[in-house]
Amino acid sequence: MIDAKKQLRVLVSEGSSTSGREAITILGLAGHHVEVCDPSRWCLARYSRFVRKYHHCPPLRSDPAGFLRFVERLLASRHFDVLLPTHEQGFLFARAAAGLASRTGLALPDFASYRAVHSKAGFSRLLDRLGLPQPPTRIVNSAEELREAVRFPSVVKTSVGTASRGVWFVRDAGDLNRALYDLESSGDFAGEVLAQDLVTGTVEKAQSVFCHGTLVGFHAYRQIAAGVGGGEAIKESVSRLAIRAGLETIGAHLGWHGALSVDVIMPLDSATPLLIDCNPRLVEPMNAFQSGVDLVDLLLRVSRGETPAPLAEGRAGVRTHLAMQALLGSASRDGTRRDLIRECGRIAAGEGHYRGSSEELTPVRLDWLSAVPLAMTTVLLLASPQIASSLARGGFGAHLLDRGSIKAIENGDFR
């Protein structure tokens, strides 16, 4: 652990994502001074007692140059020990790392490595080169190619997308036609599209921290219950040596520096985990923290230029949940008000899947302000359960990238 007497000043790159919100809790519990920049004045991080100062910044999606200038001015005018990219801001920071790293601690790989795993198509090609297992995958560029490539059932994914955006489950011709309509109307065939065989199994995720290509921290968990959009509402820590070995191979090949996470399917008919997606960041690190693996602390150390000793594996069987995700998931599955009230009762009483589980996103006992978004979500869903999907889409905001901003950053045109 970082010396408790050494309180660091940390600038978190956004405050809207669940991953960023959980990182803030871990930083706050460690006693660090936390400031957040985000284009939304009502982001999740605004409702945390651990955030000392909020900075309203330009949107990353539509103004990456303005966002970068804002962060650079902030680093020049206020001292920060670490700049912590908790979501897609890492793509921009990796492109401009030379200027940023001279002003603060920052753990990111070179831009070519970051770019290689940021896109789903790039990650799939990397897995092929390294001989790592993934579901059978075809990469296409047009509607005609997609029709030929799809084998029912499949998952169709745009190469760029996060938080389950740009994903269609295609089980028959009707599903395929709906996916094609969405892809063509949104112009997604301007980029690459993946058709991946749908594998029946358990969804798991693993996250890690690397120091110049060496794995120094690892944690895995499985999904117990899904929330809205397929995200985890309830999760449980697991031990996965095979996934750890795959991540080590990827990180060593890319000379990875910083955080790296993967999504995995554990097939029902096989013991071989299949890698399906990659996120060059920590994804919801609280389950790891509760299991005894403080990946956020480890990332701070790497960001400051330390070479930490690898952390021991955490405890398996530790269960955590996100109450907001659970309620949104219940409502999105045609849940009634009675269903929502029952789910609230199970969460409050710790019954059913919640037995022995702790809250990770809105830990009211640790951070009383986090009760505000949880209460607001509950009231809105009880008033109208049908709005669950639109509420969830509120998290897909201006703090994220789109195809245009990604292309501009890649080309260097954003400046």
UniProtKB/TrEMBL annotation:
Keywords: ATP-binding, Nucleotide-binding. Residues 124-304 form the ATP-grasp domain. InterPro entries: ATP-grasp, ATP_grasp_subdomain_1. SUPFAM superfamilies: Glutathione synthetase ATP-binding domain-like. It comes from the Bacteria. This is ATP-grasp domain-containing protein. It comes from Bradyrhizobium brasilense.
